[in-house]
Amino acid sequence: MNAVAHPDPRPDLHRPGVGAVLVSTWRVGTPERQRAAVEAIRRTWEDRDWPDPGLLSYSVLAGTDGETLLHYSQWTGQRVYDDFVRTHRDDRNAAIDAAVPGIERVELRRYGPIHRSTVQAGAGTGEPAGIVVIVEADFDGAGHREEWVDAVFAALDEDAATRPAAGGISGRFHLSVDGGRVLNYADWESERAHEEWMADGAPPSGAWARVHHHPALVGGRVRRYAPALSLSAGA
User: Fold this and answer.
1) According to DSSP H, which parts of 85-132 are helical?
2) Which one, 19, 84, 126, 139, has least CB within 10 Å?
């Protein structure tokens, strides 16, 4: 089976059978190198057999910062990914590096399947998401993460009545296998919509205060991406 690039570059977040999600970040430096790296990834994967049926999809998103790429891949389980690393990853990375030298591979994290998800009231118009907002929250222990995600949902419920997120479409929360991180993959209509919601600010007290000041929260970051490429096995 060969790899096939889909017309819609977004991953299918409703895909059945996902047991593991791998998320990695590359720093490539410029918008031109972003585009060149995405094209090198496409060519490299399409020129080779799909590595394993247990890899369900591989998607790449381009940071709106003009410097980074985010890789989001769906697997049936963590062991399938480990087999891929042993047998296929180095060859593919070498081909990509030959086309775009100097790529910095910043981080890779392992996650379980979607832990909780939400869809904004009024979303579902059929319009595709313009950008993806990736929120990463780091904790000093695994036991607090589910509690924190529950607090986020409580805050979103409060917002529904006071300041609904105009332009927000959906959010899907993953828990890292190492116990230290929550990742929220959130679809938004546009970068501007997300910027305006962030600038509006959360209420000074109440549900959002419990999110931002959770005692186990030790760090976090928010980054925006545009879907660039989504690959899966062909027939």
Assistant:
1) 90-99
2) 126
